[in-house]
Amino acid sequence: MFGFLKPKKTIEASGLLRGATDNHSHILWGLDDGVKTKEDTLAILDLYEHLGLKTLWLTPHTMEDVPNTTEGLKVRFAELQAIYHGPIELRLASEYMIDTLFEQRLEARDLLTHGRDTVLVETSTWAPPIDLWEILERMMSYGYRPLIAHPERYRYMTMKDYERLRTMGTVLQLNLPSILGAYGEEVQVKAQMLIDKGFYTMVGSDCHRFRAIQKQYTDIKLKESTLGQLKDLMLA
Length: 236
Fold this sequence. Notes:
Elements: E1 8-10, H1 11-14, E2 21-22, H2 38-51, E3 55-58, E4 61-62, H3 70-83, E5 89-92, E6 95-97, H4 100-107, E7 118-122, H5 132-141, E8 145-149, H6 159-168, E9 171-175, H7 176-179, H8 185-196, E10 200-204, H9 210-219, E11 221-223, H10 224-234
Parallel strand pairs: 2-3, 3-5, 4-6, 6-7, 7-8, 8-9, 9-10
Antiparallel strand pairs: 1-11
């Protein structure tokens, strides 16, 4: 009845990121629509150190419009490792748009995995690939586990779709800005619903810009109950 009186905290004040893992970011400079300069990359890492982050996955886009190569991503990652000497553990993967280029890379087994065998994939927010389910099944038959990036943002997906994803063995990654309202109320409500149902396995910032993530983490407040749910996911 008096839920509006319950205390709220910012992510910074809550300590949510202390010891946590960010599973999705675009801060490896100059590769996609994310961070443009190494200076901005280092500024974000400095902010993350302040917030206590333990592990950060660097997941640049790979898609027909941004045809990054596995070797090219590894080269830029090595450049970052050469200049960053802080405490955050950096890991490299990629966020693959499910398109023709992805299918070619899949057939060639030329994919950067998120861990041992998991591959971070996305679709358009408005419409799925015609053969989405067949591609996911093929990934799994090849020994890859699909990690679905920010499913709460896919406006075409229904609860039946999320149930199907879980049943078939994919894992779902929440975008932290979704629950902060960065993509609008509809996405925020769907994200909270999926959190409440226990559908997510991990969380990512999907960080593209220093100023955006700084504002999200230091200005926007969340209910402590939601922060508790997120803490369990970020430490998993």
